[in-house]
Write a structure and sequence with these properties.
This protein is mostly helical. It contains 18 helices and 3 strands.
């Protein structure tokens, strides 16, 4: 006679803080998905590296696409603008589908992998520029948006107590994942092999995004790691300062509630300006360096350093924001982003290669750091449960900034040359720093209902 033993589901309990916000504690990461939660940092990081090529290495392929496909430079820069438009456009609807459980994280990643692959196939084999706009701009951009929206918001759910550094690390993959391809496109790709190279790069994106996405899993709503007491911010020395500098949102704001807060629109406009400056640098730095007489290898090195610092800076600045506060760090980053545009222009004008490389790196640092800061700040202000949708609303500003930074950027360069364009970009960066001083976490309102501090233990799966 054999006796069967059924595994008892882990118990959890729900506690509330002084604002009425609910925290679900008791379950470990291994209870929920059978593995440690750090895997939900590494896997999204790999997925983000898979889509980074499209944006951060695109400028390095511009000359070859111009010669090999016969597309004008204006069309090619608008291709990047359309890609950025759709990459940002899907963030809000994907977030909504994810949080209403109509789209799983795994499915979103697989759809994103296919979209990214189709984008590269379009660049490699499109018979005319219309199919490039459709394949790379629409399918490639939308696929990247599926991946970006899923990866960035996943980390904050698994690390609600220390989301800055982790979000920054994952977000960094969106930049430095492109570094090998910057050199590949600049030094080895030509009119004879560009179709084969772009097809293989697309296959890499398909595998990196698709395979990592197979293991994605969300934590339960309101989940909080059991070793940190959400009612006592000093319960864990590793998180004390982060929670004091960036206190959790007063409640889990639904998208409808978040839209009533003025700070949401201020965040949208601030990200619009900073993202536009970042995309402008990505799109035009290679051409500017060429026009200033720098060798192709130097320009590729500058762009690679920009991507490396852009990516690593996201992780570093996220960690710094945990220590010193998200809003204070954002103001500093905006100042750096604005001043670096003047530095790139000045160093190029005087023909100084070391200074050009230096200011390219500084520009990359500022341009990359803004995204994880806004992603983490959205969760700080409005909570983690609806962060995919709420951050999707903030991130939708990239719909406009992509067109301004790339498409309108080429019109500004044609009208006022690089000097006028870089001066405008620098001024916009400094203006965004001033606006960031106004960002404040929404405070409790009278309709936040106070409930008892604890609720009796409830089985897993209960609502």
């Amino acid at each position: 006679m054999t006796t069967e033993f059924k595994k008892t589901p882990p118990k959890y309990r729900e506690v509330t803080d002084e604002n009425g916000r609910v925290y679900r504690i008791g379950e470990t990461d291994r209870d929920i998905m059978g593995r440690p939660r750090w895997t939900m940092v590494i896997l999204p990081w790999i997925g983000m590296m898979g889509i980074s090529i499209c944006e951060y290495a695109f400028g390095s392929a511009e000359e070859t696409l111009h010669d090999g496909q016969g597309w004008s430079s204006t069309h090619i820069f608008w291709l990047l603008g359309v890609w950025v438009f759709f990459q940002a456009a899907v963030a809000w609807p994907i977030g909504l589908l994810r949080e209403t459980e109509k789209l799983s994280a795994r499915t979103a990643m697989l759809l994103g992998a296919v979209g990214a692959y189709l984008g590269f196939l379009a660049l490699a084999h499109a018979p005319n520029v219309f199919w490039a706009y459709l394949g790379f701009g629409f399918f490639g951009g939308s696929g990247a948006g599926f991946v970006y929206a899923t990866c960035v918001n996943m980390v904050g759910k698994w690390y609600p107590e220390r989301k800055g550094g982790k979000t920054g690390f994952v977000n960094g993959g969106f930049a430095y994942g492109a570094v090998p391809f910057v050199f590949l496109f600049t030094n080895y790709m030509d009119v004879d092999n560009f179709s084969a190279i772009l097809s293989l790069v697309g296959l890499w994106a398909l595998l990196a995004v698709g395979v990592s996405g197979l293991f994605f899993k969300d934590p339960p709503k309101n989940w909080w790691p059991p070793h940190v007491d959400p009612l006592d911010k000093k319960s864990d020395p590793r998180t004390t300062r982060a929670l004091l500098k960036n206190p959790p949102a007063v409640k889990q704001f639904t998208p409808a509630e978040a839209r009533k807060e003025k700070v949401l629109y201020l965040m949208w406009f601030c990200l619009l300006m900073t993202a536009g400056v970042n995309i402008f640098g990505i799109a035009f730095q290679v051409d500017f360096g060429d026009e200033m007489g720098f060798a192709g290898g130097i320009v590729a090195t500058a762009m690679s350093l920009k991507a490396i610092v852009n990516g690593t800076g996201r992780g570093v600045i996220g960690w710094i924001s945990d220590l010193y506060g998200r809003r204070q760090t954002l103001t500093f980053v905006c100042i750096v982003l604005g001043l670096s545009q003047f530095g790139v222009l000045w160093s190029g004008t005087i023909g100084s290669m070391p200074l050009f490389l230096f200011f390219s790196m500084i520009s990359g640092f500022g341009g990359g750091a803004i995204f994880p800061l806004f992603a983490a700040m959205t969760a700080d202000f409005f909570g983690e449960n609806h962060n995919a949708t709420n951050y999707g609303m903030v991130y939708s500003s990239k719909l406009v900034s992509g067109l301004l930074g790339s498409g309108v950027g080429v019109l500004v360069v044609n009208a006022w040359d690089y000097k006028g364009a870089f001066l405008i970009a620098g001024a916009i960066g400094l203006l965004s720093a001033a606006l960031s001083l106004l960002l404040r976490q929404p405070r409790p309102t009278d309709d936040v209902t106070k409930v008892p501090e604890t609720v009796p233990p409830t089985p897993v799966g209960a609502r």
